[in-house]
Amino acid sequence: IKLDIRLISASNKDLHRAIKEGRFREDLFYRLDVVSLTLPPLRERKEDIPLLVDYFLEKFNQLNHQEIKKVEPPALEYLVSYDWPGNVRELANVIEQMVIMVDAATIAPKDLPSKITTYGKDIPCFTPGAVPVSLKDAKKLSERETILNALKTTKGNKKKAAEILQISRVALHKKIKDYQI
To answer: Residue 79 in contact with residue 111, Cβ under 8 Å?
Structure first.
């Protein structure tokens, strides 16, 4: 059966390296490699974030019959400063979540997930210029950072992280879920 199709594929791996390491077939690569586009991750093109936020805001407002007009400038600063390990998909998910969850005309910093507002900050309540938080919230933020540091130290090994933190694995899993880590 003759077909006239165009195949579009994407990878987040270095396929040239994968070929050298024997993890990707060279003949398949050259069949697919007609036009190559390299798109850097979102963390390397922060200037695109405000445009993408506007696009997703409009898209998800229409899909969900909402009327969120804009993202407040301080909230946009948080969005731009976050590194987006999940790339554009993660940004789209966050904006969709905000459109669904926020009952206001604008998205404020308080509406953003804590993983974004606490990203790269040791203790946000003591950061100059940061929005003040309650002592209860500061304790939560400190606990979240401590868990993140333990997970980084153990390279994601939850059993070892729980041992370092002197809590059970079940308690660690609950906190990971609660803090959206």
So the answer is: no
Q: Which tokens in the block code for residue 164?
A: 């370092």
- Torsion angle, alpha carbons of 128, 134, 136, 137, to 10: -60
Contact 66, 60 (CB under 8 A): yes
Segment-wise mean pLDDT, segments of 10 residues, the chain, 181 residues: 90 91 95 88 94 96 90 94 93 95 92 87 48 71 86 88 91 87 85
Phi, psi (rounded to 5 degrees) for 166: 60, 45
| Cut 0.70: pTM above it | no
- Please, is 85 exposed, middle or buried when counting C-beta atoms within 10 Å of its C-beta (0-12, 13-18, 19+)? exposed
d(CA 19, CA 75): 43
Give the per-residue pLDDT at 137: 75
Altogether, the residues listed in the chain come to a count of: 181
